[in-house]
Amino acid sequence: MLADLVIHNATVVTGDTTFAGSVAVKDGKILAVGAKDIMPEASETLDATGLHLLPGAIDVHVHFRDPGYPHKEDWASGTAAAAFGGVTTVFEMPNTIPPTANAKILAEKHAIASSKAYVDYGLYGLLGEDTIDKVDELIETGVIGFKLYMGNTFGAIPSPTTGAMLEAFEVVAPTGKRISLHAETNSIMERRQSALTKAGRIDPLAHLAARPAVVAIEAVSRAAVLAEWTGARIHILHISSAAELRPLAEAKARGVDITGETCPHYIFLSADDYARLGGIIRVNPPVRERENQLPIWNALTSGLIDMIATDHAPHAPEEKTRNDIWMVDCGFPGVETQRPIMLTEVAAGHASICDYVRWSAVNPAKAWGLWPRKGVIEPGADADISLIDLGHRWRIDDAKLQSRSKITPWHGREVCGLPIHTIVRGKFAMRDRELVAATQGWGRSVHSIQQMPPPQPKNLDQTTAFILKAPKDAALR
Ligand code: DOR
Ligand code: ZN
Fold this sequence. Notes:
Elements: E1 3-13, E2 18-26, E3 29-34, E4 42-47, E5 52-55, E6 57-62, H1 75-84, E7 87-92, H2 103-116, E8 120-126, H3 135-141, E9 145-149, H4 162-172, E10 178-182, H5 186-198, H6 204-210, H7 214-230, E11 233-236, H8 245-253, E12 258-262, H9 264-268, H10 274-277, H11 293-302, E13 307-308, H12 317-320, H13 338-347, H14 353-367, E14 385-395, E15 414-424, E16 427-431, E17 434-435, H15 464-469
Parallel strand pairs: 1-4, 1-5, 6-7, 7-8, 8-9, 9-10, 10-11, 11-12, 12-13
Antiparallel strand pairs: 1-2, 2-3, 5-14, 14-15, 15-16, 16-17
Helix pairs in contact: 4-7, 5-6, 7-8
This protein binds (4S)-2,6-dioxohexahydropyrimidine-4-carboxylic acid and zinc ion.
């Protein structure tokens, strides 16, 4: 059989092992993995001497702003950034304009994404106070999962009450879809921010003061209780504090289907960086005191935190550099720099490259039912491949990013590890550090290949829907 592409002389990395070998690709899939002399003939060969071959990263948390904010990002620039970062699948958030809250809006976003994307993607549907009745139509139209904002952030999507959250979990639990949570408690933050504003605080650290770690502890704990009661699957986005690790660990110990992610900025930045970076560092949840960094790192290496994501949140430079911190837009790009920043730790011996492949590809694929189609270098899997020069030292330069947002806290940081080629289902999206224009529009939604394990809803005779349908005495039995 003639393969489309054979990559020779790579160091292949999986979640468990590394070995020298070749990888053959045909019709978008991995055809063979192994020694050079057993590889099939191919239309094209690539010599990857000196490069590591990893499963492309799956970043389950990006904001591509399309439709709504073309000056910040769109599906072309966002997925180009992903390709340059060795990321082959992204899950995109619903805080666009209009928010991804019903089938019609979701269908429009699918049309935009499928025409522009260089990499594969999943779209989140919004789970809010007023969109609980849209769960079915959103699933039919194709979502990877749901996003629920327990706390306010960019886009000003109102946070549902705990009552609405419970009902939302009741409705989503039987579908098996995972609910990703912005776990910060809104009422605490609103009061804090208003008190700080009244006191005249407009400095960057006021942002951290408005969102103390207790907002995350409270939100993670509450979400875990509701998930335990309903059997809903949940995912804790952007873990920012040491203290929220305890409710996460306790929920896992109780058998709650809960996963967690952190982002490079919670591991490598701290309150000490606010003076240097000013508004650039403003992000929700905030970058916290230095004491949080090591426990978060340790939770990642121990497996308590399941994965690394980026919360890629592009904004224009003028939106990030205002004097009054409350006027600064929250977040910064990350999809393009995650691999180099994390691999620098691998180069320093702080983690193994297999650990890193689990955090960036294997575990996200498993949590959203994409395994073993994605996140793995094995025959039959999608040929989503990231070839990386692990020894390449370089400095991050915001001006050279593919993202339309040329402002990050990483500018000037020295990193070790550079993605050289990125292949999405067999096609080069980035080759020799050049974008492959012909691959634009090749990206596809992964909801169609998602296979979540059977749902395990609980307390079905206690749901709002059941109580309303059941005879009056049902609740008394
Ligand atoms: O800082 C943030 N920015 N946190 C979020 O949760 C949203 C994001 C954005 O969309 O800009
Ligand atoms: Zn986000």
